[in-house]
Amino acid sequence: MTFLFPLGLIGLGALGGVLLLYLYQQRFRPAATSALFLWDGGRSSREGGRSRQPLRWSRCLCLDLLAVACLALAAAEPVVELERGRPWFLVLDASLSMQGRDEGATALAKARAVLVRDGREPIGLVFAGQAPQVLTGLTVGQAEEALREYAPYHTGDSVAESVALVRELASGTPEIHVLTDQTGAPPVPPRASVVLHRLAGRASNLCLAGLRRSRDELASREVLRFGVANFTDETQAVEVVVTAASGVVHRETLALESGATRGRELPLPARSGPLTVRLDGAGDALSADSAGRLLPPPVRPVRFRVDVAERSLQVAWAQVLRAAGARVVRSTPDLLVTDGAEGEGRVCTVRLAALGEAGPVYVGPYVVDGVHPLAEQLDLRGVYWGTPPVGQIAPQPTSVVAAGDVPLIWEARGGAEFRMRLVPARSNLFRHQAWPVLGGNLVRLVRRRLPGLERSNLQPGEALGGHGQGPWRVEDLAGRDMGRGGRAPWRPGRYRVRGPGGESTEIQVNAWSLAESDLRGLSAEAGTVALGSGEAGASIHAWTYLGWLGVVLGCGLLVLNWMLLRRSAVGQP
Amino acid sequence: MASGVQAALQYRLAPPSLRVRGPSGVQVGAGSGTSIDFHDFREYLPGDDLRRVDWGAYARTDHLVLRLYRSEIAPVLEIVLDPSGSMRLVEGKAAAAVFAAAFFAGLARQGEGRPVLVWGRERHTGAAVEAELARRRFGGPGAVERWGETAGATPRALRVVISDFLFQTDFAVRMRAWARGAAALVCVQVLAAEEVEPTVRGAVRFFDIEARQRLLEVRVDEEAVSAYRERLKRHCEAVRESALGVRAGWIPLVVPDDWVGGAGVEAQLAPALLDLHVVERPA
Prior knowledge:
Order of helices and strands of chain B: HEEHEEHEEHEHEHEEHEHE
Mean pLDDT of chain A: 80
Strand order of the largest sheet of chain B: 6-5-4-7-8-11
Largest sheet of chain A: 8 strands, mixed
Mean pLDDT of chain B: 81
Helix content of chain A: 10-25%
Shape of chain A: flat
Number of helices of chain A: 11
Low-confidence stretches of chain B: none
Oligomer: heterodimer
Structural class of chain A: alpha/beta
Structural class of chain B: alpha/beta
Low-confidence stretches of chain A: 44-51, 535-542, 569-573
């Protein structure tokens, strides 16, 4: 224990004052009597107090001495190092670019070297990614073991945030080692010293960008979209090879100028199975972003049933929904088109207004909620729309399509139901190009609401984005739990996602990030730089704790003493 | 407390001289009654029971004379116990006061009498007497010099006041108040040895045990102790004179500070009561 303000210890001199006070006071021995008046008339207190007597230790004297000692020690601002030695942290930059840096040594090997070279314990290990992971109190062995979890697939620079986080977490004056490939240096926080270990390496890189695979439900085909970027200083001829289970399905050579990016879209037959996209070219420093594996999109069939009395309506709906990829079923449909009262418990219901007498016919212009998924790219120009009698229909705030303030299609039951007012005999909607658009939008909307994942190809840490009740549980193919955070793992690979109902979907995590793949702005030279120490000092938390502890103890003892004195009322209990 | 009751078994009240009042019982009273013990003669008055006429005397003297017999009563013994904090100055003092109270309660019960314990503002009878004594609730509220007044008094009871009488008041007036209506009054003064012969010496801050804020700082030496003894003697003498002035019995008891039981108190109390003819040894 040390003192920040040693002069405060002068206050211990007050102990002598307390003893003197008690010496003076203690010359009178307290004694109870039942007849004070019988002693009255004796020699007065002034005379009586003159006799010398040894100091008598009493409870009050001890409490007073302790209180004064506590207050004096508190005034001296005592501090204590709560941890053994100086806290030591290694902050590892976990961005994707760290994969390809340092000639002849990986970032992992470099991290191990830093750990072993210093050899101090306990070690704090921080993986500085988009969600920094902190491990503290490790031995060297434990830290080396923990490095297996190091997955440098993050994007963005979060080293400075992690260093600041370490400063907040650590007591005392931590020594923070940072392993990064960034050119800039993180700011040195107060009461901390920072040593920067820089990785460097080749800056030329070719990478895949925007790797995406989707299914076109209407055309019954799949589409592969990808981009290729050249982050070298020269024009590169890059060969792109797309391989399916049956063999190579596409091969082409792209000539890319320095800094150029080119996107490609390849139609694929349906049910092509897993695909692998690989780049071959000179000067590729980062292999992690040069290949990717893509799983087929999840199959999410929409089952529908049309319960409509009017024959023409029934046919029109069934045709458009079947064309949009939905499957007709007799029971438990996801989408129900009805003109009756049924519909509760479905993913989506379209409730048609009862047909009766003819109402007004609208020819536009229509008010369409352009941001609603049901009205996406919906163009109603040229549509005339006959409705049942308007009656007392009030304007609906959730209108998707309206004619003036008369709602034609609107949401109900929190979006679980759409209501539509249309008389088919007095409308050309079913013969208009807007009808298949409306049907396709409806099926897509329902498909998005079906439980399960929408996509099977994700980036590291990307939200799974599935519809349904969480939590999603991610596990690798060996069945090991990888977390329940609703995000893809940070390490690329193939995983299995289990939903709350036990449904299982395989996902593929591919690492690609244009920002991380461009290595040209990163450090060119490796080395270790001591960034110096911030303002030196001991832990402010430890100081505050002990100082206040002394004050509280001292005051508490004084109060206790006062209560005892008050209880005895004679000054000498 | 129980030892006080046990000690009382060796004695019994001698009330014929005390004119104690009480309901019909087994204790011989001071007045005329229906016992078989002869008491006195008196002249016949119209209406008297002819069966009480001493026909022998009539034959001898030609006067109608009635034979009177002693009454049999259950005496009431009122024990007024000083509730002040000074009674617990030392353990022995409180124990002795409770012993004395229990002794008198035991005496009353022996004659199938009724003990009444007046403790501050409260009155207790029956089994509650012993229970209250066992609780030793000294130091309760109430003006020290006026205890026993507000609780009322039992007429013609044998009243015993147990206190250290170490307070300043007009004891002549107080004794008259205590003696008023009582068949007899006995004052038992209980003092601790430390109070009679202080051992404390040197510079002392005395505080009143009943009013702790009252302080007196004194250098206690032989001279001061001697003066104290003289004042105590004068005070006790004045109280005793006041007691005798109302024909009350005065029994001083001095007990060791650590007395918790034994023959010491009984050895002082019983002879004094025998001398005062308040008790007698059964034949």
